[in-house]
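RETRY 2/3 - previous attempt timed out on the joint model. Re-submitting the same 352-residue input unchanged.
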Amino acid sequence: MAAFFKGLAKGLLYFLFFPFGLLAIALYAVFGLFVFVFQFIKLIFLFFTGRNLQSDLPEDIEVKKIIESKKPKVEEEEDKELSMSLYPSDSIVYGGGYTSPLVEDKREETVEEKSSEEEETIDEEEKEEEEDDA
Amino acid sequence: MMPNIIVSLSDNDKRLIFSILLIVIIVIVLIGLLGYILFRLMRWQSKKMDTLVHDVVIYKVVTDRKHFIRYGRVKNWAMFFKQAYIPLIIIIVAFIVLIIHNCITNNWAYNPFSTYDGFGTIFYTWKFSGRYVGGTLIRFAELVVDNYPHVTAIAWCGYIFGPLILVGGVWYLVSVACLLARTVLLYKRSREVFEKSLDGYRQSEADETPKEETEEAK
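RETRY 2/3 succeeded.
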């Protein structure tokens, strides 16, 4: 019920303020025409300088410079990470092709698993030998 | 008093009251709906202002209110030009068609919305007959149909001009509403972004860090 009355009150507000809103928009439409004409004249001038209204402002250029100055550092770091992951390993690369870092990682994991399994089996054998000796 | 009035109402009066109430409700609902759509549209468009001025604020390229407003205004007007040029071209085309028609017919008093040879021919129109109708208490001036929808060749200009001017006009008004919404948000943000607050600040309790910072900067 409260929601219904809230909706009703909102509807009444929209109804009451709609004419004022429309009046404001109508007045702004006249102002908009002047803005449009001003922009059109500006566009003509910009056209002869090889630019347009969507061209970057000095502030935009400055922002781009800041962004670009931050960009290379990130790229260098990424390159470093990539070169680390591409470090020659004992894995066989068929056809001398490029192995993706992901594949490398997986191979490293499998090698680690195998070595841990081997260590476990060696430990078990040693235990058995000790038991036999005893 | 009230029951006496209700009793004295004839069937025609009751029908009239019911239809008047229905019309009032429909009008309120329609205007409310239009207002709601306009409000939502303006809210949606005002967010575009944030996108336009976001980077210069985040990277601290713009650091004062005046500069912010000047930059935002240039961006806002450029966006308005982009949004408004199509509807304005449509409106200009409509007027060119009207001028061509008037040149051909040599009739510069031509009304493109006329019900005789204009856009109005395809609509129902009503006029007052001069008679009064209704019940015993409520009486209204009678309305009779003035024009039934029909198509005539002489109204060709109205058929082109009418839809073009309606579409162009509404489209232009929508882009103006968007411009207004973005302008309102620009001024709102200019106050919020560069606001300096001393809420809860005590100079006596403040440490010396700001001084040191300024010395380092020197």
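Chain B has one domain: 12-193. Closing ticket.
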